[in-house]
Amino acid sequence: MKRNEYLETLRRELESRNIEEIEDILSYFEEMISDRVENGESEEEVIVSLGSAKKIVDSLFGSSDKEKQIKYKETEVLDDIYTGVRKIDLQVNTYHIEFIADDTDAVRVEFDEDEYTSLKITRNNDVLKIEQEDSVKGFDQLFTSLSKLFVGKVSSHRAKIFLPENEILDMHISDVNGDLDIHNIVAGEIFIETINGDMEIERCRCGKMKIKSVNGDADMKDIVLEGSFRGESVNGDFDIDMLKCEDIDIHTVNGDVDILVDGSRRDADIRIHKIMKDTNISGEGRIRLHIDTVSGDIDWDFSR
Q1: 78 band by pLDDT with thresholds 50, 70 and 90
Q2: Domain boundaries, the chain
């Protein structure tokens, strides 16, 4: 199949799904094919490696078959890989990740995959590294670039990570576009970085937590931290319902902050700065609450 014929097939597939940004997608694939041809591959080789237009669109937007069920690939639990892990280093672009506390002695990973995208799991000392693998050259860049056009639509892959209930692990999570669910987890340090992915974190107890986001929202409920909480965002909102922590520091440009602190206002050292309305509040107490924003709204309260 020649380039023009392949791109026309891709166009028809996108039109059948009522995708709006057809020209942007076609331009991206035309440029990708040209770059690989310039690097020495034949046009036919590139098109064969990309696969059918339907599979391309399925990978970006999910299958057109509404009855398709996600089938998870369960990794074999090996003592030398999954037992005795002290830290999880997760680096993915499009996976929706769910962390689950489990009655087990080892970390367990389940994920769905296709011919383009899968997960690679390796062990280095006590660190378990989970990375997204994209089999097509430039496919990782494709997802990252198109995510600006399709926020919330790109995350078509899912993974479940089961954590031992009796182990306290550190978690470093980088998930560019996929959403993140963390429920009922006891952990050491949790550090989350995301561009567009939303985060739902509920009923967790940790040493300390830091979240860095560009557009992703953080929805948190019933969080107990022994150390500090740090939140940074450009447009992402922080919606926090019951956070028990002695040191809370949130910086955002346009994101809104809605926070209920588990404690008393009279025990808090409050410092809030909002540039657009020039709001400053200060106090002295045991709980330190510091929020900076340029144009986002701030709604804060205490449980008692």
Answers
A1: very low
A2: 3-61, 72-206, 217-304
What's residue 60's pLDDT?
Answer: 66
Q: End-to-end CA distance of the chain, in Å? A: 69
pLDDT above 90 (res 147): no
Angle CA 211–212–214, to nearest 5: 135
Both structure tokens of 39: 């690097």
Nearest Cα to Cα of residue 7 among 40, 52, 58, 37: 52
Computed on alpha carbons and rounded to an integer, the radius of gyration of the chain in Å comes to: 22
The gap from C-alpha 236 to its chain's centroid, in whole angstroms, comes to 13
Distance between CA 260 and CA 238 in Å, rounded?
Answer: 11
CB-based contacts of 29: which residues, under 8 Å, 6+ apart? 7, 10, 50, 56
CB 202 within 8 A of CB 183: yes
Contact 300, 280 (CB under 8 A): no
What's the pLDDT tens digit per position in 207-244? 999 999 998 999 999 999 999 999 999 999 999 999 99
Q: What is the DSSP secondary-structure string of the chain?
A: --HHHHHHHHHHHHHHTT-S-HHHHHHHHHHHHHHHHHTT--HHHHHHHH--HHHHHHHHH--S-TT----PEEPP--HHHHBT--EEEEEESSEEEEEEEESSSB-EEEE---SSEEEEEEEETTEEEEEEEE-STTHHHHHHHHTTT-TTTS--EEEEEEEETT--EEEEEEESSS-EEEES-BEEEEEEEESS--EEEEEEEESEEEEEESS--EEEEEEEESSEEEEEESS--EEEEEEE-SEEEEEESS--EEEEESS-GGGEEEEEEETTTTEEEE--SSEEEEEEESS--EEEEE--
How much is the pLDDT for 148?
Answer: 44
